[in-house]
Amino acid sequence: MKPRNRHLPAQSQSFRDVFAAARINGDIPADCRSVNEILARVGDKWSVLVVSLLGDGSLRFSELRRLIGGISQKMLTTTLRGLERDGFVIRTVTPTIPPKVDYELTPLGRDLLVPVKALGEWAKRNRARVETARARFDQIGKS
């Protein structure tokens, strides 16, 4: 049998070995679980959009909702609470009538902005290649 993913660096091989051993024992290593939890938070489309928008400065809830479009009030609230809980966003309430609530990135959130922007740039650069691959795949599937 041919080894798969021979192009992966040695570091990925060792991760795969650790993960395979954990499956044999029926447990996922703690470091894998923590990475998975963090990636689940920062990898969903709404979190990426919120972090990207807050990269330009603080915004109010209504401004975020208007800028994102297509997100429900409940989903935006859930996303912001999760980002706040994980230390990426800070929520500031100004006691006015009605209260003014602003959201901004914390230093940890600004640090997250670096890979988020890089991934966004990668997606823009490779959009045509992905669309070509999809069309090729879809064409083969019709045959």
Give a verbal description of the structure:
With 143 residues, the protein is mainly α. The protein has a domain at 45-142: Winged helix-like DNA-binding domain superfamily/Winged helix DNA-binding domain (Arc Repressor Mutant, subunit A, Orthogonal Bundle). It contains six helices and three strands; from the N terminus they run H-H-H-E-H-H-E-E-H. It has a three-stranded antiparallel β-sheet with strand order 1-3-2. A hairpin with a 5-residue loop joins strand 2 (89-94) and strand 3 (100-105). Mean pLDDT is 84; it is low at 1-8.
Task: List key phrases describing it.
143 residues; mainly alpha; Arc Repressor Mutant, subunit A; three-stranded antiparallel beta sheet; 6 helices; 10% strand; extended; disordered N terminus
What's the short story on this structure?
This protein is mostly helical. The chain is 68% helix and 10% strand.
Write the layout of secondary structure elements.
Blueprint: H1 10-25, H2 30-43, H3 45-54, E1 59-60, H4 61-68, H5 73-85, E2 89-94, E3 100-105, H6 107-142
Antiparallel strand pairs: 1-3, 2-3
